[in-house]
Structures are given as structure tokens and as C-alpha cells.
Amino acid sequence: MYFYNYAIEKQSQSIKITADFMVDFQHSDNETIMIGTPKWWDDHVANNIDFSNFDLYFLCSRTVCYGQYNSVTDFKNVWGLNQLEKGFYENQYFNRKGKVYFGIIKGNGEDSFHSIRSSTVLFIPKGLSINADEIYRIISEDEFDFLEMEETSYKTLKEISQLCKGSILLKYTCINEVSLVFFGNTLASCFNEGELGAFNGAMEVVSRIL
After folding, report:
1. Please, are residues 118 and 61 in contact by the beta-carbon 8 Å criterion?
2. Residue whose C-alpha is closest to residue 119's, from 78, 76, 65, 174
3. What is the mean predicted confidence (pLDDT) over 111-125?
4. Could you tell me the pTM of the whole model?
5. Start-to-end C-alpha separation, the chain
6. Which of 26, 44, 79, 147 is the most exposed place for a label (fewest CB within 10 A)?
7. DSSP 117
């Protein structure tokens, strides 16, 4: 994948970085490709966070379209559907696309951050705890769509990021657009618009579970 035309968009208490992309096929007749976000985004974030100060929480989801969910998908839940280890919280809700299986996994350290468990990662300062039921209330009432970043998505994610003081929330998207949105002041200067052009070109890709 080739990434170019990087841009930064600043909103109230959030920053969004986007990139255009194209795919260079080696075998146009039959080739499987991995769509994702540039790996340098993850490396850049990791270089600007002291992981010893935070616990990580991966907000995991799997959306099954209307007419396709059943007792089997209910039994598998988000863990089986995404082939993930079982976390400490799980629930379900409906949005306009279908049934959303939702779960939370707790992680720790940089290696955990670089896993592909989820496209939504919440950093909570050590010593604080999250209210999983409150997170579920927010996303279910908003009928949150984990697959795409829409205007309404900012309200939901902002509300989650404000549950704990000093938290950081990252949301990766690679459907319809390639973007990374982060909430929280800690990473306000992480990405510098003047340096983005240096990363134009072919890049290693990270494909997180949506």
C-alpha cells in the first residue's frame, strides 16, 4: 500500500490524521491484500506515550448484519467471531447495520498496544479503573458503529474518553477512509503537520480487528 496526502484535522478535544492510499497489485488476476493503517502511526504513538503510566483497554466489536446473526453467533460472541482471548466484559446491542457483539480486554505495555485486538484503544492512567457498564450504556444508546467514523462518532468517543481524567482514546478506521482519531491532550503534539510529507510512499500496514 502507498500512502500520501496526509492531513491533520483538529476538532474540539480531538485530532484526526488521515491519508489517501492506493494499492500496487503484483498479481492482478488473483491476489489477497491486507487493508489497514500505516504502521508508522502506531510507532509514532508508542514513542510519545509512557506505557508505565497507563493500563490499556481494547474495546472489541463484531457487527453481524441483520438476518445473519443466530444462536451460533450468539454463542461465539465477540471472542469467537474475532478469534480473540476472552476479556472481562461482554454485551450486545443493535444499530442500523445489525447486531453488535461488544467486549473489553485489558492489556498492559507496548507489546499489548501493538496487538491487533481492536481498532479502538483506551488508555487509562494507572490507579484508575473503568466503568464497563457505563461504556456499554454510551455506545448502545448511541447505536455506535465501530466500522466507520461519522460525525456522530465523535460525540460517543469523546464521552467515553472523558469518563476518566487523563485518559487517551484512539480510534483507527480503514473502511471508506484511512484515519486515526485520538482524544485526550497527552498526544496533542504527537503528529506534526510539517513532517507528514516525509512518510509519503509505500508503508508497512497494520490491520486491526474492527
Report:
1. yes
2. 174
3. 95
4. 0.94
5. 19
6. 26
7. S
